[in-house]
Design a protein that fits this description.
By secondary structure, the protein is an alpha/beta fold. It has three domains: 67 residues, no CATH class; 99 residues, Beta-Lactamase; 242 residues, Rossmann fold (3-Layer(aba) Sandwich). It has 13 helices and 15 strands. Helix 1 crosses helix 2, helix 9 runs parallel beside helix 10 and helix 11 crosses helix 12.
C-alpha cells in the first residue's frame, strides 16, 4: 500500500505541475497540452533517471487524466473489453472474451472518480448527485453507462459501462458464432416479415439487445418503425423511416420526467407500423401489451426472465406494478398480444445461445398456453466449449399471419428464404 500511495503522490504532483503551466485564459488545444506534459515528464525523467518506456507511460496516463477518461480511457480504447466495472476505490474489473478479471490499475483518488462521472453524465445531459444518486446514460460512442453514488453506494462511486461493437452484430455473424441454427434464423426471418410480435427474453448478459438488433434486419422496406428506450443503445439498421425516442429524468430546471410509458403513448400518434421497445422493466408492460392488441403487429421488445414460462409470469408482475387488474385479464392480453417468445441464455462456457423459440397460442383454462417450436439440447463439451443441437420440436399453430403474408412453407412445417 505504501508503494501505491507513493506512486499516487508522484502522479498527482506531475499533474499539478502541468496544470500550473496551462494558460487558463484561453482554450488549450490537445497538441499544446501534450507539449506541456512532455516538458514536465522530461524534467522529471532527468531527476529520477527513469526509462524511456516509463516516460511514455507517464505521458499517456497524464494526457488521459487531463483530457480524457483517466485510467478508463485505455479500456475504452480496447475493442475486446465488453464491460467495465469501477467499484469505488476497491478496484476496477472488466469483462474480456466472456471472463471477468480485475485490472491492475485504479484511480488515484475518489475525487477523480467523481470528476469522471460528472464529465460523462454531463456530456449525456444527465444529472447525478447525492439527491439523485442513480443514473443511466449513453456515452457519445453508444456505450451504456450506469452510475450509483454514495450514500446509496456504500463502497464509493460505482461506474458500470456496457460496451457495444462499433458495427452491430448481424444475424449472419450470430450464425457463424453458433448462437442459433440456420433453420431458426430462417423461421424468424419469415416471422418478422409476416408481422408476428416477438418478445426476446433472457438473463443479464445473454445478448438480448444484440439479438434484437440482428432481428431488425428482417423488417421489410417501407415500414415506419418507432424505437423507444430508457437509454438509447439499439443500432437498428436498414430502416429508412425510423424514429428514436429516449426517456428523460427530471432535472434541476423543473423538467418533467418522461418515462417509457409516456413515450409508448406518444408513439401511437406517430403512425407507427411497428414499435420496438428496448426493454420492459416495470409498469410500461401494460402499455406495450395494449399496443400489441391494437393493431401494431410485428413489434419487438426484451425483458429479463429465467425461462420461457417465467417470461409470462414476469409480464404479469410488471403489469400489476402499474395498475390493479384481474390476473385473467392480464393473461388474455399476453396471449393475444405476443406471438413468439425467443429465450436466450449464457452457458457455462460464456457462450450466448438461443435456447428456445416458443409460440404463444392462447389460453388453456386459466393459463397462457405455450407451444415450443425449437429447443437447444446440449450434447457434450469439446475443449471447454459446449456443443449441442437446435432441435425442431413443434410446428406453428397460429399461421394466419403467414397466410396473409403469402408465406406457405411454414404451414408445411418447413422454413423458407435464404441469406
Amino acid at each position: 500500500m505504501e508503494q501505491v500511495s507513493e506512486t499516487s503522490e508522484k502522479f498527482l504532483e506531475l499533474k499539478r505541475q502541468v496544470l500550473d503551466r496551462v494558460d487558463l485564459s484561453r482554450e488549450v488545444p490537445d497538441e499544446e497540452m501534450q507539449d506541456l506534459i512532455d516538458e514536465v515528464v522530461l524534467s522529471y525523467g532527468k531527476e529520477q533517471q527513469i526509462t524511456l518506456n516509463e516516460k511514455c507511460r507517464m505521458k499517456k496516463e497524464l494526457f488521459h487524466a487531463l483530457r480524457k477518461m483517466d485510467v478508463l480511457q485505455e479500456l475504452l480504447d480496447e475493442p475486446g473489453v465488453t464491460e467495465i466495472m469501477v467499484n469505488g476505490m476497491d478496484g476496477i474489473f472488466l469483462e474480456r472474451n466472456g471472463s471477468l478479471t480485475r485490472w491492475e490499475k485504479n484511480f488515484y483518488s475518489r475525487e477523480r472518480i467523481l470528476d469522471i462521472i460528472q464529465q460523462m453524465t454531463g456530456a449525456c445531459n444527465r444529472i447525478v448527485n447525492e439527491s439523485q444518486p442513480i443514473v443511466d446514460a449513453r456515452l457519445e460512442n453508444g456505450d451504456r453507462l450506469h452510475v450509483v453514488l454514495p450514500p446509496v453506494a456504500v463502497n464509493g462511486p460505482i461506474i458500470t459501462i456496457r460496451r457495444f461493437p462499433e458495427s452491430p452484430v448481424t444475424m449472419e455473424k450470430l450464425l457463424e458464432m453458433g448462437s442459433l441454427s440456420q433453420e431458426e434464423a430462417l423461421f424468424l426471418k419469415d416471422a418478422v416479415q409476416a408481422g408476428y410480435s416477438i418478445l426476446i427474453a433472457g438473463g443479464t448478459g445473454s445478448g438480448k439487445t444484440t439479438f434484437l438488433n440482428a432481428l431488425s434486419e428482417y423488417i421489410p422496406e417501407g415500414e415506419r418503425v418507432i424505437v423507444i428506450e430508457d437509454t438509447a443503445e439499439l443500432q437498428i439498421q436498414n430502416v429508412e423511416n425510423l424514429v428514436r425516442l429516449e426517456t428523460r429524468t427530471s432535472g434541476v430546471e423543473d423538467c418533467r420526467e418522461i418515462t417509457v410509458r409516456d413515450l409508448i403513448r406518444a408513439s401511437l400518434r406517430m403512425r407507427p407500423t411497428r414499435l420496438i421497445v428496448g426493454e420492459v422493466r416495470g409498469a410500461e408492460a401494460f402499455e406495450l401489451l395494449t399496443c400489441l392488441n391494437t393493431g401494431h403487429d410485428g413489434s419487438f421488445s426484451t425483458c429479463h426472465a429465467n425461462s420461457t414460462r417465467d417470461t409470462v409470469s414476469r409480464l404479469e408482475t410488471m403489469v400489476l406494478m402499474g395498475m390493479e387488474l384481474p390476473l385473467q385479464a392480464i393473461r388474455r392480453q399476453i396471449a393475444s398480444g405476443i406471438d413468439l417468445i425467443v429465450y436466450l441464455g449464457r452457458l457455462r462456457d460464456k457462450s450466448r445461445r438461443l435456447l428456445e423459440i416458443t409460440e404463444v397460442t392462447g389460453m388453456e383454462g386459466e393459463q397462457v398456453e405455450l407451444n415450443p417450436l425449437f429447443l437447444f439440447r446440449e450434447t457434450g463439451e469439446v475443449s471447454g466449449r459446449i456443443c449441442g443441437i437446435q432441435e425442431k420440436t413443434g410446428d406453428m399453430i397460429n399461421i394466419e399471419k403467414f397466410q396473409r403474408a403469402g408465406i406457405t412453407a411454414v404451414q408445411e412445417g418447413n422454413v423458407s428464404g435464404s441469406f
